Automatic annotation (TrEMBL):
Residue span, PapC-like C-terminal domain: 677-734
UniProt xrefs under PANTHER family: OUTER MEMBRANE USHER PROTEIN (PTHR30451), SLR0019 PROTEIN (PTHR30451:SF5)
One term of GO molecular function: fimbrial usher porin activity
InterPro entries given in the database record: Fimb_usher, FimD_plug_dom, PapC-like_C, PapC-like_C_sf
GO cellular component: cell outer membrane
One GO term of the biological process aspect: pilus assembly
Name of protein: Fimbrial biogenesis outer membrane usher protein
Domain of life: Bacteria
Length: 758
């Protein structure tokens, strides 16, 4: 056949010689993922970009694959796949070592909104009066101003005795906190930082410190993570020392349980997975948690500069004229090692040292430090300690030795460093409700008699009903210093308890029997009675307490060795905020002032529990919120007046530390009424008739019985109605009722108008 008569040869199909994109449904290890991923196909072989493999769940970091790189699936060792072109699916078989583990946090909390603060002033007070020849009266107070930029606080005590009238200032400071940087800056009186082997001093000046309390959800210590694998989607239960701490669900494949909660010290964690058929797999691992360690990469610090405070509590403005500085730092090198350092300096003294805490696997944590001082007080100090906490054993031992004339800021100011400090405690839980412990404490100051005190204690609990404690001690350096004590406590229910103590100390017998019933949190009465004998001084006491929304009052009567006295203690807070003065029980941290824009008698809820009602000015003070945490506060909208409107009835409040938040529930009053309309013939207008209120521009319709609801009423109102061929209008006057009700007006007769109303 001639060449020109031969049948021309067709090119091969595109899919056999050119790569092209395909979009396939992905299955992983036999499980459908409902995921569509992009691949490149050539002759039945697939390739994909790193970002697509990452979305499927392949661990790119283990394979060294970049997000933008295109990788042949056949080149990934251990991965197998089946490509079904007809069904447009790809089934991947991925071993666990190539998959990204599914991670979940057992301590996960909802993200806390940024903390806020309103502007206001509060005065905490504690007034104590006692009957005596001097007519004693002392008033402790704190004046605290707060706004979004920080908190100013001043504390002190006023003595109003018959022959002694004076005011002694305690602390005055301005503090600013930054939740993002997790630090607090304080100007004024403060207490310097310290470590386990250093001492704090009061200082007036400036302090800059890390503050983890600004993030309550932050776990600052190392916590274990547990890995597992589920063949199919399963439920996961986490048990710590046989107590379930977490329950959740995981997809098929590897998973990691982060931030295991529940214990301090040693214990056992058990992870149990269950599939849809009820098959279980349990994995147990030992764990040890010590909250003194810092998590890997986490650091804390504190720096102070100023002048040492002297005669605290006696003199308001006695400061050492020599400037002083102090600083501490800690850093978590890894989960097993935390290092720390401390330094101090003032005129004639320089002190610096370092230390470390090392976790010995499951065998506990050992700590040690070495520091030195130079100048007028030159010497060294060394410390060594060990702690082990187990479910059936607890050991705590610490020793500190000072050599030469070792000194620090406190020693430079007149309080010498102990030359020896020892502490050893051993606790043995015998059974579920019994504990036996022994301890030894020894210390020695220069030119002072040393103390070496040993003690033993046995405690048994009888459920929640009663407990018994037997203890004894002896000072080995003082022949006659010893004692033995027996105490029994009974819980009688309704917050009432009875306690009895009997003992012998330093050759004298003593006993005490008391019964107490403190006031409930919601307020009310409390009481307490006791009688006893402390050696040669018998005594009796009775007290009555009342806790209200505005504070707490305690009245005490005493008879000591035949001499009777009486005392009165009144504590509380006065808050000036939002143009109102609010008495309250004692406020320690954050609080909220609820405002309903003048509407009185509205119930206020805390965590869905009614805690009070707004006063005549529409205010209610919630005195005990947790700063930098979620606090759910709301009002009962069902108790609002009928003509009231509100956007929300609940708020998530996050106050700054020692500050108040104004929770304004914007209540607006509106003018509205139900109007009965009838046509020119006197018959009620039919349902569905269109109604237009000219003054407000709002539209509505007529319901049954000729009734329509009209909002935005003015003193004079005009309604235009359309109903089929009827076009008519109504005009009427309106005056808001004094009882805040929504009145019914009419019936009103609709007058015909020419043409359409609008």
């Amino acid at each position: 056949m001639p060449a020109y008569a031969q049948t021309p040869q067709l090119p091969p199909p595109l899919s056999t010689n050119l790569p092209h994109d395909v979009y396939l449904e992905v299955e992983v290890n036999g499980q459908r993922t409902s995921m569509i991923a992009q691949f490149r196909e050539l002759n039945g072989h697939l390739a994909a970009k790193g970002k697509d493999l990452d979305s499927i769940g392949i661990a790119l970091d283990r394979l060294g694959i970049a997000d933008t790189a295109e990788v042949q699936l056949d080149s990934i060792a251990g991965l197998r796949y089946t490509y079904d072109a007809a069904r447009q699916t790809v089934s991947l078989e991925i071993p666990d070592n190539l998959r990204k583990p599914y991670t979940f946090n057992t301590r996960a909390q909802a993200r806390t909104p940024p903390a806020t603060s309103s502007r206001g002033l509060l005065i905490n007070y504690d007034a104590y009066a006692q009957s005596s020849t001097d007519a004693q009266l002392a008033i402790w107070s704190e004046e605290r101003y707060f706004d979004p930029t920080g908190v100013f606080s001043n504390t002190g005590i006023m003595y109003l005795y018959r022959n002694d009238r004076r005011y002694t200032r305690y602390d005055t400071s301005w503090s600013i906190s930054d939740p993002v940087a997790l630090d607090t800056k304080q100007f004024g009186d403060t207490i310097s930082s310290s470590l386990a082997w250093s001492r704090s001093v009061r200082i007036g000046g400036f302090q800059w410190r890390s503050n983890f309390a600004l993030r309550p959800d932050l776990v600052t210590f190392p916590v274990p993570a547990f890995a597992g694998s589920a063949v199919v989607p399963s439920s996961v239960d986490l048990y710590i020392n046989s107590v379930r701490q977490y329950s959740g669900n995981v997809p098929s494949g590897p998973f990691i349980v982060n931030n295991v909660p529940g214990i301090t010290g040693g214990g056992q964690a058990t992870v149990i997975t269950r599939d849809a058929l009820g098959r279980t797999v349990a994995t147990s691992l030992p764990l040890y948690v010590d909250t003194r360690l810092l998590a890997t990469g986490l650091s804390s610090y504190s720096f102070e500069a100023g002048f040492l405070r002297r005669s605290y509590g006696l003199d308001s403005f006695d400061y050492d004229p020599r400037p002083a500085v102090s600083g501490s730092a800690r850093y978590g090198v890894n989960d097993l090692l935390t290092v720390e350092a401390h330094t101090e300096a003032t005129s004639g003294l320089y002190n610096a040292g370092g230390g470390a805490l090392v976790r010995l696997g499951m065998a506990g944590v050992v700590n040690g430090s070495l520091s030195a001082s130079a100048g007028r007080l030159a010497g060294t100090q060394a410390s060594l300690g060990y702690e082990l906490v187990e479910p059936h054993l607890s050991i705590d031992a610490q020793t500190i030795r000072a050599f030469g004339n070792y000194g620090d800021l406190a020693a430079r100011d007149g309080t010498p460093v102990p030359t020896a400090t020892d502490r050893v405690t051993l606790a043995l839980p015998l059974f579920a409700s019994q504990t036996f412990s022994v301890s030894y404490i020894g210390f020695k100051f220069p030119q002072a008699q040393p103390s070496q005190i040993g003690s033993a204690s046995y405690t048994v609990n009888f459920g929640n009903l009663a407990s018994l404690n037997l203890s004894a001690y002896k000072d080995f350096k003082q022949h006659d210093s010893r004692g033995v004590f027996l105490s029994v406590s009974f819980g009688l229910g309704r917050n009432t308890s009875v306690n009895a103590n009997v003992g012998r100390q330093n050759g004298q017998s003593n006993y005490n029997v008391n019964a107490t019933r403190p006031p409930d949190y919601d307020g009310g009465w409390g009481w307490g009675v006791q009688t006893g004998d402390a050696g040669a001084a018998p005594y009796r006491q009775a007290q009555v307490q009342y806790l209200g929304k505005g504070g707490e009052v305690t009245v005490v009567g005493q008879d000591i060795n035949g001499q009777g006295t009486a005392s009165l203690d009144v504590t509380g807070t006065v808050v000036l905020m939002d143009g109102s003065v609010q008495p309250s029980r004692r406020i320690y941290d954050g609080f909220a002032l609820v405002s309903t824009d003048g509407v009185a008698g509205i119930p206020v809820l805390r965590e869905n529990r009614v805690i009070g009602v707004t006063d005549s000015g529409g205010h209610f003070l919630v005195p005990d919120l947790n700063s930098y945490q979620h606090n759910q506060v709301g009002i009962d909208g069902m108790r609002l007046p009928a003509d009231a409107r509100i956007d929300t009835t609940s708020m998530d409040l996050v106050p700054q530390a020692q500050s108040g938040v104004l929770a304004r529930f914007g209540v607006t009053r509106y003018s509205a009424a139900s109007v009965i309309l009838q046509g020119p013939d006197g018959k009620l207008l039919p349902p569905g008739a269109a109604v237009h209120h000219e003054e407000s521009g709002k539209d509505t319709i007529v319901g049954y019985d000729g009734l329509t609801f009209v909002e935005g009423l003015q003193p004079d109102n005009h309604l235009v109605i359309e109903s089929g061929s009827l076009h008519c209008s109504v005009e009427f006057a309106f005056e808001r009722p004094g009882d805040a009700s929504l009145p019914i007006i009419g019936p009103l007769t609709c007058r015909p108008t020419a043409g359409k109303a609008r």
